[in-house]
Amino acid sequence: MESLKLGSLEVWPPVVLAPMAGITNAPFRTLCREQGGGLFVCEMITTRALVERNAKTLKMIRFEPGEKPRSVQLYGVDPVTVGRAVRMIAEEGLADHVDLNFGCPVPKVTRRGGGSALPYKRNLLRAILREAVRNAGTLPVTMKMRKGIDDDHLTYLDAGRIAVEEGVAAIALHGRTAVQHYGGAADWGAVARLKEAVTEIPVLGNGDIWSAADALRMMAETGCDGVVVGRGCLGRPWLFADLAAACDGRVESARPRLGEVAATMDRHATLLAECFGSEQHAVADFRKHVGWYLKGFTVGAGLRRRLAVSVTLAGLRDGLAELEAGQPWPDGVDAPRGKTHPRDRVHLPAGWLDDPYEVVVPRADAELDTSGG
Q1: Which of 17, 113, 259, 351 would be a feasible disulfide site paired with 362, CB 3.0-4.6 Å?
Q2: pLDDT tens, residue by residue, 270-279
Q3: Which residues pair with 41 in a beta bridge?
Q4: What are phi and psi of 205, to 5 degrees?
Q5: What is the rounded average pLDDT of the residues 253-272?
Q6: Mind listing the pLDDT tens digit for each residue in 308-322?
Q7: How open is the CA angle 16-21-22, to the nearest 5 degrees?
Q8: Strand 97-102 to strand 203-206: parallel, antiparallel, or no bridges (unpaired)?
Q9: CA 114, CA 313: separation in Å to the nearest integer?
Q10: Chain centroid offset of residue 175 CA
Q11: What are the φ and ψ backbone dihedral angles of 10, each rounded to 5 degrees?
C-alpha cells in the first residue's frame, strides 16, 4: 500500500474523512485526527458565501494550529465564482488542499442543478474544474462525485476523463447514484471501473466502509488508491485508529468500553463549546451525536432521552456519569449509521436532461448550505 499523493501533498494512511455538514467541524476533526493519520476535510463551504466573506462561512474555515494538511471542500455551480473562491483560498493561505463537491443528492440542491445533478452537464463541469485548477496556484484540487443521477444517466466515467484533462489531482467516487441517496448497497464495481478508466491520477472509493476490514477489502477488490470514510465514523472517531493500524499491516481494533465512550462524548461537547464560544449552542449541536455514540450499547430509554435533550454541559455530564462504565463494546455495530433511505426520483430543473453538453449555469440559490455525497 502506498501513500496517497495529491499534487505536492503526501497523505498516509490513504484515508480521508469525508466532509459532512454539521459534523466535520474542528472539534470532530481533532477527535478523529488524534486516532491516526490521513486527510481530514472540513465542512463543505459554498463558494458564493466565501467570496462574499459571509461571517458564518469564514468561521467554518477554522483549523487547529497543528492541523496539517488543512483541507477545505467547496460547493459551487458557477465557474467564475468557483474560480474566485479557489483563488481566495490560495492567495490568503486559507487551506492546503481544495476539494469540490459534486455528490450532494438532496432535492433542494439537485432541483436547481447543483450537487450530483451537475456532472450531467459535461461542459459545465469542465468549466468549473478548469477555473478551479487555473486559480489554485500550487494547491491540489480534487473532486468528489456520485455514479450519476440514476442508472439511466450515469456520468462518472465521463466526469473522470474530464477531471484528468483539466488537471484535477484525484477523484473520489461514492458508489451510489443520486436517486439511491444513502439507500441500498454501494457499487464498488463502479469504483473499479473508474480506476481502470482513469490511470493518471488517484481514485478514491467511498460508500459502505463501516470498518477497517471494509476499507482493505474495497482497496483489494477495486484497486483504488485510498478510501473516503463518511457515515462509518459517526460516533466512532476511533475508527481512524483501526484504519491506520490496518494500513500499517497491524491487526488491531479499538473497542472502547462505555466509560471510554462517555469520556469521548464529554470531550467532544467541551471542544464544541470552546469552538462555538457558547455552551448552549455546543450542547444543542452535540445532541445529534448521542445516538451514534451509544449505538449498540444497553442504555435505558429514559437516560438516552435525557442525554439527547441536555441543555448544559453539567446536565450532559450528569447523564454520562450514570452510564455503565464497564460495559464492553457491543457486537454488530460495524454497520450502517445515519440516513439510509433511497428516493423515488431525483428532482431536477425543467429540461435538465435534454442536452448533456449544454452550458447552463444554475441559479445562485442552487448554492445552499447542504452537504453530502
Answers
A1: 113
A2: 999 999 999 9
A3: 71
A4: -105, 145
A5: 97
A6: 999 999 999 999 999
A7: 110
A8: unpaired
A9: 38
A10: 14
A11: -125, 125
Catalytic residue positions, numbered = 104
**Cα dihedral value 114, 116, 119, 125, nearest 10:** 50
* Residue 177: pLDDT over 60: yes
pLDDT at 369: 52
Asked if pLDDT for residue 79 goes beyond 70, the answer is yes
Per-residue pLDDT tens digits for 310-369: 999 999 999 999 999 999 999 888 877 777 777 788 999 999 999 999 888 876 666 755
Sign, Cα dihedral of 337, 269, 30, 72: positive
Mean pLDDT of 240-260: 93
Confidence of residue 303 (pLDDT cuts 50, 70, 90): very high
Amino acid type, 131 = E
Q: Which residue has 469521548 as its cell numbers?
A: 264
> Is pTM beyond 0.85 here?
yes
Can you give the three-state secondary structure of the chain, one letter per residue? CCCEEECCEEECCCEEECCCCCCCCHHHHHHHHCCCCCEEEEEEEEHHHHHCCCHHHHHHCCCCCCCCCCEEEEECCCHHHHHHHHHHHHHCCCCCEEEEEECCCCHHHHCCCCHHHHHHCHHHHHHHHHHHHHHCCCCCEEEEEECECCCCCECHHHHHHHHHHCCCCEEEEECCCCCCCCCCCCCHHHHHHHHHHCCCCCEEEECCCCCHHHHHHHHHHHCCCEEEECHHHCCCCCHHHHHHHHHCCCCCCCCCCHHHHHHHHHHHHHHHHHHHCCHHHHHHHHHHHHHHHCCCCCCCHHHHHHHHCCCCHHHHHHHHHCCCCCCCCCCCCCCCCCCCCCCCCCCCCCCCCCCCCCCCCCCHHHCCCCCCC
Place of cell 484533462: 165
